[in-house]
Amino acid sequence: MDLIKALNEQYMKPELPDINVGDTVRVSIKVKEGNRERIQAFEGTVIARKHGGISETITVRRISYNVGVEKVFPIHAPNIVSITPLRRGKVRRAKLYYLRDRVGKKAKVKERI
Predict the structure, then answer these.
(1) Is 90 helix (H, G, I), strand (E, B) or coil?
(2) DSSP 2-71
(3) 82 with 62: CB under 8 angstroms?
(4) CA nearest 13: which of 47, 58, 45?
(5) 10, 21, 23, 90: which could form a disulfide with 110 (CB 3.0–4.6 Å)?
């Protein structure tokens, strides 16, 4: 058991920002196109946080051209360059799946001061 734990800790990122459900974040991802590599940002609201340890993931949702787009990011993956919190959200739930049914101002999350 300690061997598995040691292997997992080897691949975990040492410094991660404090991210909670409801926060608006910018996730920078390495994208490889042919032989070139670039960094692409995905900005949205964290609606879920799952698992723990090396397999921890966050689900980020944003509206793009009036269509809801959700992506699941494993936060310890090597292609995740950075996760930057932009604003804190004031929520009372662990999962914000109800935002999928909301449109416009109703889909906003209040800011925690």
Answers:
(1) coil
(2) HHHHHHHHHHS-S------TT-EEEEEEEEEETTEEEEEEEEEEEEEEE--GGG-EEEEEEEETTEEEEE
(3) no
(4) 58
(5) 90
Residue 55: burial class (beta carbons within 10 Å; 0-12, 13-18, 19+): exposed
Average pLDDT over residues 71-100: 96
Q: Which two tokens stand for residue 15?
A: 């410094």
Q: Are strands 67-74 and 24-33 parallel, antiparallel or unpaired?
A: unpaired
Give the model confidence (pLDDT) of 37-85 as tens digits: 999 999 999 999 999 889 999 999 999 999 999 999 999 999 999 999 9
Contact (CB, 8 A) for 73 and 27: yes
Residue with tokens 């906003």: 108
What letter represents residue 48's amino acid? A
77, 98, 65, 62: CA torsion to nearest 10: -30
Nearest by Cα to 80 from 54, 109, 48? 54
Burial class of residue 2, CB neighbours in 10 A (0-12, 13-18, 19+): exposed
